Amino acid sequence: xxxxxxxxxxxxxxxxxxxxxxxxxxxxxxxxxxxxxxxxxxxxxxxxxxxxxxxxxxxxxxxxxxxxxxxxxxxxxxxxxxxxxxxxxxxxxxxxxxxxxxxxxxxxxxxxxxxxxxxxxxxxxxxxxxxxxxxxxxxxxxxxxxxxxxxxxxxxxxxxxxxxxxxxxxxxxxxxxxxxxxxxxxxxxxxxxxxxxxxxxxxxxxxxxxxxxxxxxxxxxxxxxxxxxxxxxxxxxxxxxxxxxxxxxxxxxxxxxxxxxxxxxxxxxxxxxxxxxxxxxxxxxxxxxxxxxxxxxxxxxxxxxxxxxxxxxxxxxxxxxxxxxxxxxxxxxxxxxxxxxxxxxxxxxxxxxxxxxxxxxxxxxxxxxxxxxxxxxxxxxxxxxxxxxxxxxxxxxxxxxxxxxxxxxxxxxxxxxxxxxxxxxxxxxxxxxxxxxxxxxxxxxxxxxxxxxxxxxxxxxxxxxxxxxxxxxxxxxxxxxxxxxxxxxxxxxxxxxxxxxxxxxxxxxxxxxxxxxx
Length: 518
Description:
It contains 19 helices and 28 strands.
């Protein structure tokens, strides 16, 4: 069944023919070109041939000679990747040295939400007009996402907490594997790419190894919207078999309230024909933040923050100027830093409603928390007692604060139980806390904790982003010196955490790779 697809075919022609090889590749190029069949009525789309081409592994890594400015731009973004990977290698060797036992005092700032900023960046793929994001944290994950967007032709300029994005140069639909493999949030771009270009080819996502995070809900939703989606050789390929190059509104029910799936489908639906209803949608603040930006860009969205979201598609979106919400997970980590050191600290800016379950548990263990302007003041100088934790989707207790909260529970009086229900492999920090003297008994995804009077400083490692944060908190409360490695994980979600903790009294310093070797 041939379907006219003129502009998309042009993209494919430029993609495959703007590369000149130094070695003969004629057979491969002929096979790839075979998906394009020219007829009297113009270029036509062959769905089966397109599927075969999209799912074929990329050409071998040979010394290319780039013959087009677009390919030079992709080469430049890959060079940026090499620099980022080299920096990550150095971070792997660096460590934090913490002398514990000091109380904290003063005020510590909260940056913009990383998990929100990453998906907001992906909206630049939905419009050809400039987009400016404020309160953007300076994190390695933000840099990686900027490289991915640049690889697709989006202009990215970051400085002074602001990020300027311009998607008018979007000219590719398949980001480099080397970029997407390092960042789970990279998979979000399949929704906006499909909505605007009508085609996308995205490697399955990477990120922290905390458990299985399948993309089944994403794929099911995109298929319901009318996309043809296949998964082969670790690549998700999607295309719209429609002459109008638009998805169609529909009803989608998510079996699990996945944040990533909800956000991906919202971005895909904003340019679709008709109305899309997403039931059992994620209710996280980051979903509400995404809806806020999309509405500012001209989208029609109702119900964000509730289990049912309605999106009415529009023809096009415009640019916008938008401020990212404060990072609720970073704010919770800083509140826990005060609690584990039995200190009084002001943390802000904070949206208290985003931390309802965390605040309730901190108050249950004995902390006093008061609102103070746009911040919170926590006083943990009294005796603290144990409580039980069960991770759940928002508005329940966030899984991202399970490890840091377990560090606190290791130091309070009484027995506690922590149940992880979101990710099956998010207890890797238990062994490191035990190395510091914590009394924890692990049974599957349930940890039984008996608080000890004092943890002991030791060399420990953070196996993922939040586990690394938990090691830092444990080091703040421990007797003696703690060294924490795995900073390439920590720096993905916390900007200069050691400097901010040091500004309120912690004895913490970063040792570069050279100092570690000496």
